[in-house]
Specification:
By secondary structure, the protein is α+β, with helices and mostly antiparallel strands. The chain has three domains: 115 residues, no CATH class; 209 residues, Beta Barrel (Thrombin, subunit H); 117 residues, Roll (Pdz3 Domain), CATH 2.30.42. It comes from Eragrostis curvula (weeping love grass). InterPro entries: PDZ_sf, Peptidase_S1_PA.
Length: 469
Amino acid sequence: MEPKPTSLAAASAEVTGEGCAEPRSSGRDAACQTDHDLFLGPAEPAPATKRKNFEEQSMTTNPEEDELRKKAKQLGWSGPAGMPLSVPGILEEAGLVMGTSETDEENRQRDSTAILSEIVTNLPTLRNPKDPDTAEAVASSRDKAIVMAAARSVVCVSSVPLDGKVTDQCSGIVVGWNEATMVARVLTCFRLIGGVDGLIDPKPKLHVHLPNKAVSEGQLLFYSEHYDIALVEIRADAPLEIPSFGSSPNYGQEVFVLTRDSESYLMARHGTISWLDNSDVWGRDHRMFLRGELTMNSDGGAVIDHDGNVVGMAFDEFNDSSDGTGILAVSTILGCIEMWMKFSRIARPIHGLRLRTIEMLNVAEKERIYYDYKINSGYIVNEVETDSTAEKLGIRSGDVIVSFDKFGIHSLPRLEDLLLSLGWEFLHSRSDSSTVDLKFEVYDLVGRCTRSITLPVELCDASLRVRTR
C-alpha cells in the first residue's frame, strides 16, 4: 500500500488518479516523482484546460463530495496554481478554520457538506450580526471608531457555581491595570453575586470574559449594596486598557451604553439621560436614568459620551418604569473606589431625606415656583424619615433646600459626591465620633422664610470588604 499523500497537490492526485503509470528513466520523465508533476502531468496543458480537466476528473459519483467542492469553490479555497482542492484538502482547510491542525475523526465521520456549512456560518465576514440593533445604534464611522476604542475596557463578568455552568452574567469596566504584575481591577454590578441578604456565596466563583475572548478567573475584593457595585481582581495574559474617564453626565445628554456577553460579543445602544422622577429606594436619589432600549447584560455596562469618555455605569431595572435604565455617575464611582483603596471602606452620611431637584419639574411648575417664591433651583423634600433627626429639627415635606454647606449644588449626583467628600474627611481625620454635621439652608413655603439648619448625621459603611483567606 502506498503512503498517504501529505501535500494538497498529492491529496488531489489521490482523488483524481493522476500520477505515474509506470517508471520513467531520465530527464523530464523522472520529475514525475515530484508533487508538481503528479499534479500537472507530463503534457503541460494550458491553464484553462488544466482547470477544466481537473474539475471533470474530480467529479465523483458521490453527490455530497461534489456539493462540498462547490461550496469550497464559492469560498475561494484552492490549491497550488489556483487549482481546486481535493476532498481531503477541503477537510484539512476545514480543520484549520475550526482551530485544529486537521479535522478529527468525529468530524471526518460527519456529513462533509454540514462541516463546510458550519464553517461558512461562523465566518465573521459572512454570518448575520448577533445583535442587529447595535448597527442601528452605532451607524457613523466616527461613532464606530469611538465605540471600538472605549470597548477595549468593557468586559463580561459571569457567576459560575460548583457545577461549572454560567448562571448569571453582566458587564464590567476595567478601572485599574498594573503592567508589572499583569493584574487588572474590574468594576461590575453587585447583583451578580448578591441580593437583599448580602452575598449569595461568601466566596463567589467569577469568570471575566475579556475583549479578545480570553477568560480569567476573578477574585472579589469588595462590594457595596448601597451603590450596587463590586470590584473584582483578575490576572490577564495580555495587556488591558483603562478607559478615559469624563465628567458626570448631564440631563439631556446623548450617550452610548456598551456591554458584552459571555462570548465577548460587543453590544451597544444609544440613548439620552432623562428627566425621570427620583428612585423608589431610600438613599438612592443620586441615580440618573437613561431613556432608550436596553441590551443584554446592561447591568455593569459602560456609559460613554460622544468623545469616548466613560461618564457612568448602567444598571437595569433601577426603577419601576420600563422606559429607563439606571445610571451611576462616574464621579461617584471613582469616589467610592478611591475611598476604598485608601481606607478599605466607604463612609457615607445618612440624612433621612428623600429629595428631587427643582430642575426635574416641568417648565410650568418651575415657572410658578419662581414667580410665587422666587426660587429657581434647589432640592424639594419629598419625604422625611419618621423619627429621624431631620424630622425633629422641623424639616417637612414640601420644603426646599436651597444650598448645602453654602454650595449651590443643584443635581442629585453632585449632592452624592458632596456627601462622599464628608465621609472622606471623616475617615481622614480619624475622629472617634460616628457623626458629621451637615449644614444647609431650608426654605419653608408655608411660612415663606429661610432657616439655617445644622443636621448631625450618622455615617454608615456603604461597602463590605471580602475576606480572601
